[in-house]
């Protein structure tokens, strides 16, 4: 049935589905951008977390964002041309991405509640590997430099092996001497645990909210695509 033969309700569904898919394309881009930013920024502390829930859920949101952008094009074409086969394919694939994105968003909020207890244990377990394994040394140095902190709860966690990254930076590549005279003016005195937890929780909320909002928009797309499919003869 062509657009001229479709009733006003069908035409409204068609226009609405095209509009929603434009929004989905933009939302997918936002999800992809937020996911990429969090993926890059979390890298400094990822080695200190043996729990991969956060990293995996960010990856889920990244893949979902990219898939949404591609599917929105299919949805627009299916609605504009009124092709039932395209709409059915769009509905099935969008439903899969809907479930995946929803799970990714929920995992972010689950991680947000559990991060403190797991990270505390994992950060203490990572201290002995400083200076022994490159990935742990780099992770600690990046974490302490980025968050301006030292140790897990304080610089005392390092005993007599305080890293240079605990010393305050005057400018990139130049630090104060905090080993011979450790005090608040020369070294970071705050522990990294609370700062890392706060940082990761903020990121988890950003990714989680983005995922949940996009799933709500996808739900509308599923409803309109199903309704338009029925209207087309």
From TrEMBL:
PANTHER family: TETRASPANIN. The chain crosses the membrane at residues 15-40, 52-76, 88-111, 204-230. Keywords: Disulfide bond, Membrane, Transmembrane, Transmembrane helix. It is found in: Membrane. Gene3D superfamilies: Tetraspanin (1.10.1450.10). Belongs to the tetraspanin (TM4SF) family. It comes from the Eukaryota. One of its GO terms (cellular component) is plasma membrane. Disulfide bonds join 149-178, 150-166. It is a multi-pass membrane protein. This is Tetraspanin. InterPro entries: Tetraspanin/Peripherin, Tetraspanin_animals, Tetraspanin_CS, Tetraspanin_EC2_sf. Its main location: membrane.
């Amino acid at each position: 049935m062509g657009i001229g033969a479709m009733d006003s309700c069908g035409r409204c569904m068609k226009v609405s589905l095209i509009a929603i898919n434009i929004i989905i394309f933009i939302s997918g881009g936002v999800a992809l951008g937020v996911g990429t930013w969090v993926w890059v920024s979390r890298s400094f502390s990822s080695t200190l977390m043996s729990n991969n829930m956060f990293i995996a859920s960010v990856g889920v949101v990244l893949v979902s964002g990219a898939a949404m952008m591609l599917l929105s094009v299919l949805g627009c074409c299916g609605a504009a041309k009124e092709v039932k086969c395209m709409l059915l394919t769009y509905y099935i694939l969008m439903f899969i991405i809907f479930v995946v994105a929803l799970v990714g968003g929920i995992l972010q909020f689950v991680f947000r509640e559990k991060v403190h207890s797991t990270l505390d244990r994992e950060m203490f377990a990572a201290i002995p590997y400083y200076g022994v394994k490159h990935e742990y040394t780099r992770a600690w140095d990046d974490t302490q430099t980025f968050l301006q902190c030292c140790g897990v709860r304080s610089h005392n966690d390092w005993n007599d092996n305080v890293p240079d990254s605990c010393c305050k930076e005057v400018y990139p590549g130049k630090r104060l001497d905090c080993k011979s005279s450790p005090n608040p003016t020369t070294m970071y005195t705050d522990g990294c645990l609370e700062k890392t937890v706060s940082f990761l929780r903020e990121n988890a909320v950003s990714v989680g909210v983005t995922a949940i909002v996009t799933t709500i928009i996808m739900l509308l797309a599923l409803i309109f695509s199903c309704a338009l499919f029925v209207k087309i003869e």
